[in-house]
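Appendix B. Raw example, untouched.
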Amino acid sequence: MNFRFAIIFVLFFPVSFIAKPDFCAAAFNLSAETGTVWFARNDIRIPADEGTRFDLLDLTGSGPSPYIRLYASYAFNKRHSLRLNIAPLTVDGTGKLDKDVLFEGTTFKPGISTKGTYKFNTYRLTYRWMYHRGMNWHGGIGGALLVRDAKVELQQESLKESNTDLGLVPLLHLYGAFFLNDRLSAILDVEGAGASQGRAIDAALKVAYEWPSGWHAAVGYRTLEGGADNNSVYAFAWLHFALFEIGYAF
């Protein structure tokens, strides 16, 4: 996603999707999350049956790198809401492979400067049902549909190969907000799913402060882990995020 668009979105539509009592009364919620992301793992083998397994971090590095996520939500009432999440992520870098790597039918040699690119853009629509709304905590459950726009690319001198993947993934959504006082909340937001062909989990734990005007800010930690293991692709990554969120509800 164009970074200029992200800046415009933040300037004109700053808000969040956390479920404080008066936030839930607001129909619209828009927010931006930013911070740094770093990788603990990024293992690739394409094609899965004949390719060579290698660590893409040898080329891209583990980070940290800046990131941004954008959210927009609409609450039909105090129980039911929808949330749209746009989460672009692309990292690249140059390094050297430590062995011959067969990738997409082409062999990339070790010891030669090689550029690696990893893209994992996601677009997610989440439905949430607030099954509990108490004075001390709120609980929600629901589901999400995630559109995955992924790419892995290697480039070495005149050689260049890439694998792209556009797919739709259903996820389970879980949510909890625990009120430390009238303004301060601890929030757990999790979406994930698993099967024999792969798994995905996106979990965030954050502390948010809400001002009477409707603005809020939050800090916290997010982890994203998962991948695919099928006949055509083996790819698993584990990412960590240090996040800051700014928002406003109306």
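End of appendix B.
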